[in-house]
Amino acid sequence: MGDRRGADEGSRRRDGQDRRIRVEPEEDRFEWGWLDDAIAVMHRHGIRVILGTPTSAPPNWLMENYPDAYLIESGMQRRYEGIRGHRCVNSPSFRRRTERIVTELAARYGAHPAVMEVPGPLAECAGVVVEEWDALSSDAVAVQMNNGNTYQATQWADILEPRGAEPIGWYRSEYYAGKAAITVNKLGSGNAYYIGANFGPDFLSDLFGGLLRTLDIPHIPGLPEGVQASVRRGGEGAYLFLTNFTTSAQTVVLDRARESVLYGGNAGERIRLQPFGVEILLYE
Length: 284
Hints:
The protein is of the alpha+beta class.
């Protein structure tokens, strides 16, 4: 068990993923009292609950009753019990017991007013809920955007159920082919994007570059890798900060010549930054 508290917002996360033995101390015998009490206390105080499943930490009785559930490593060595993730996910026995505990949890708490869906408090903002989650491990799955471009998603895949949001990217393979992977939801005068997987720089560059152009947000195209540009505004004007976080010199090409605040005079359009160098320019 563990507590993690966010100092800024006073939020608390309670992690009970290793407590399955308390919920199901013996096969098919469930004891819900402690979890009932915990959820009831949070509900009374107006705290919403995202309820996960304890499937990654199977109890000893499951491993003793179903030896095929052990994760066998190289050399036919069983992975030690008590370590999170020591189960074999393609074991038929483990899958049956997983289905049982998940079904029992859903039946008991699925309609509880305190229990909410992922992505939690952001669900209404994003206009979407996560219907299912797929761990891709070393695999990748293709995602096609509404402009026809295709990108590779890695590590995980949130299978999305739009609730007001508009899908703009869809999975092209696996059992969830055709399901939403990326959505956009109109929210007030803006838009909330939900990106349901891990993507490479090509996707991020295309998505955010397109947003910058659509929203006409000032930016520097082709900024070198490892160089950061930011605009700071004060009472006397706006300033462009350029910072080189790399060990080699970098050149930033601007849309026009600007005046250097640090060194004085016209800095030109091509700004040469030494390793870990900084330049501050008059922006407006």
